[in-house]
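Task 17 of the worksheet. Students: predict the tertiary structure of the chain below and write it out as structure tokens. Keep your answer in the requested format; marks are given for formatting as well as content.
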Amino acid sequence: MGLQAGIVGLPNVGKSTLFNAVSNSAKAQASNYRFCTIEPNTGLVDVPDERLQKLAELVKPQRIVPTQIGIVDIAGLVKGASKGEGLGNKFLANIREVDAIVHVIRCFEDENILRDEGAIDPVSDKEIIDTELQLKDLESVEKKLSRSEKLLKTGDPKVKAEVDVLRRCKEHLEKGKSIRELDLSKEERAAISDLFLLTEKPVLYVANVDEASMHTGNRFSEALKASVTGENSLMILMNNSIEAQIAEMEDPGDRQLFMEEYKMQEPALNKLIRSTYRLLRLATYFTAGEQEVRAWTIHEGWKAPLAAGVIHTDFEKGFIKAEVIAYQDFLQYGSEAACRENGKLRIEGKEYVVKDGDVMHFRFNV
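Model answer:
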């Protein structure tokens, strides 16, 4: 589906360390976790999903194909980016192109790491980036509002509705709030969809903490957590340095011993990728056969024909029916044949809403 998440943050917060850890981890775990660079500082990474591995153990296919998400390392931002300071224009243009934002915020003290902003203050750091994005969005909203208000005299109810939404957005942004916090209906959001507003994008906050705080957090991460409450976002704890060390280990045994030393069940990177996937309100269904067991990405709430179209547009155009097995049923009975014999294979039509984890086979005719 080509979805991307952009890693952003102030200089020296661990942003590039995180991006490098993602790419190195993919190379270190090449058997089930891939990374492919598609341009400088941009790559595709597999979404870790143990369900895919369990299905493969049962089916024993020739190949396993995970679903993927794009990760972009976006240039560091400085105050004034909305006016072109630093790499501001490039930074904002890159954010506009991604579907979600992974905002890395420093939540640890280290006098050896330079910090132009003074004492460690994750809430202030968050607000610096928020403000720059809000100012750029305010500029976009005001430009469209100026054009739309001139059309009010036509009496077109659509124009009036659009102006009402734009005025609400302008007022909201002027209060220092992001558009994702504004309660807009699907129809109202359509009025601003052409603006591709930066603060409308969902955000995953990564609190980059020290080793002692990687499981429990600290006063810095707690302050950040409190500041994002009610913002319709997600937050996770990570120690980017430790993640980078894990990612550099090519031997699985060494990685396991290292994680056990830090009481980790898995790399926090896995949680980051899964959290980003969830943030985008994505779901996964599987196809399972002798040639391959594969994960497919869809949006939550998609019906069967649209989900089939992810495989090929002909599947959607000529959709007849879908054969569906719940993941847990497939796991319990061990094969498609056994599920069929025990009445666990269902025939669903065009109105079926695909569930996360469904194992599916589509019938179509073009």
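Marker's comment: The two ends are 23 Å apart (CA to CA). The first strand starts at residue 4 and ends at 8.
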